[in-house]
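[AMINO ACID CHAIN]
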Amino acid sequence: MPHKKRKVRKERGSRTHGYGIIGQHRGGGQRGGRGETGGKKHKWTYTVKYAPERFGKHGFKPPRRREVNAINVGELDEQISNLMTDKKAKKTKEGVEIDLDQLGYDKLLGEGQVTHPLIVKVDSYSESAAEKIQNAGGKILESKQ
């Protein structure tokens, strides 16, 4: 709320209002620049205390990699009954046909045991996965390569 006893009322006619030379108390020079000016120079102590990560490089971002969604042959072998009830796998004369692309998998890995003859359609696979499936009487069909 405005009132009569303000400094500006007292200082009327004094030209500098008690701030010395005319240029003083004008512009941003009085506060060392506007905003975060001088963060690397005269306001360095502020930067060190309150904004230490403001300058410099931080961390490393690797090039974008495509994430591979993989499944092991052991897991696949355990899930056969569920896949057949959901009609995501078909039983044929040669074995159980599974399309891993349709299930959302990109790669077949070789951990675990294979007890059923599987005919698997997949983009890529490991040598151990192929060996285990062939030993169980199945085969791998490459879908893209």
User: Anything to note?
Assistant: The radius of gyration is 37 Å. The chain has two domains: 1-58, 70-142. The chain is about 25% helix and 15% strand.
